[in-house]
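We treat protein structure as text, and this decision shapes the records that our systems exchange. The tokens are whole numbers drawn from a learned vocabulary of local backbone shapes. One such record is reproduced below, unchanged from the form in which we store it:
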Amino acid sequence: MYLICDLEYSICMSKLKVGDLSDAKLDHDRLKNIDSLINRLILEECFPGAVIAVGRNNVLAFLQSYGYASLYPAKEKMTIDKVFDLASLTKVVCTTSMVMKAVEDGLIRLDDPISYFIPTFSGEKRDKVTIWHLLTHTSGLPPHVPLYSVLSSKDDVIDYISKLKLEYTPGTKVVYSDLGFILLGIIIEKTFDTTLDVISQEKIFIPLGMNDTMFNPKGKLKERAVTTEYCKLRKRFLKGEVHDENSWFMGGVAGHAGLFSTAFDLSIFAQMLLNGGVYDNKRIFSKTTIEEFTRIQTGHLNKNRALGWTIKGRQCSCGDLMSGKAFGHTGFTGTSIWIDPTYNMFIILLTNRVHPTRENECILRARPLIHNYIMSTII
């Protein structure tokens, strides 16, 4: 069922700020016709199902579900309120946001060395690695290590990563690294003296009214989760428990993955950023902080990396039609969020493309196709 929202849908809109539907200035007839594209991609087995949210000019103009939330062990239709494992969207929605809070609160500087927070992270050029390097994926750390298979306890994570040999001189290359964001999550916990899940709820999700956004969902929220992959380690299909093995090893709460949310909640988050950090009369961030964290920081390395976020470039998941100021991120499970301040617009695309298996890369072509179609509806 379509949810084309305007002021009359006060219940559906919850606390989202909206104006008259015409203010969105989107071709709604064309937008609704995206069905044929999404259904074709489902038939091509790019993903079993999807939820798409589109907002423009303070209007949530489109919120629609497609396909199935689960194929195995039983079929279950997708609905707009389904909860998704966000995977690496955790890096921006949670971890980067908490670094922003720490910077604003005078607790962290972007040029602070990691060794200030984690003394064992020192020697062999590690002393040169800063918060900025972790956020821009220029730290020298390798992209990934299967911590769940080489360590016996999550208590060993800090010491293990601190002793890893850097693969290049910090600041000379952009190499996407989960390990850097695992360290950022740990630094946030040390800085605020509490766990990442607790502090992100307190500082971001509860103030915004993002009631379906959390780590390790339980009860009815877990029941609403889409099914991801059959996990050989856990010997079951995963539903409402984190897909990423390293995050699972760390108890489901980590800086690189583990957050769950809905398209509606992410729409609130995206609108807050478009609003310059304010939502529902609550200021979450300053406009200056958002501007700094969402501008290109690695242009000298010929890469479009901001702080945590990716900036639109060639061969981008957001397609060809968003502006050069658009920023976003993707998640391994098939999720993405893109925000374009030039067009005052956001696109949330949540899919369960790793169900029943991750051996499916059709999403890499599907994402740009979908974003191009949606951007073509701008009047």
About this structure: The chain has a mean pLDDT of 94. The radius of gyration is 20 Å. The longest strand covers residues 59-70.
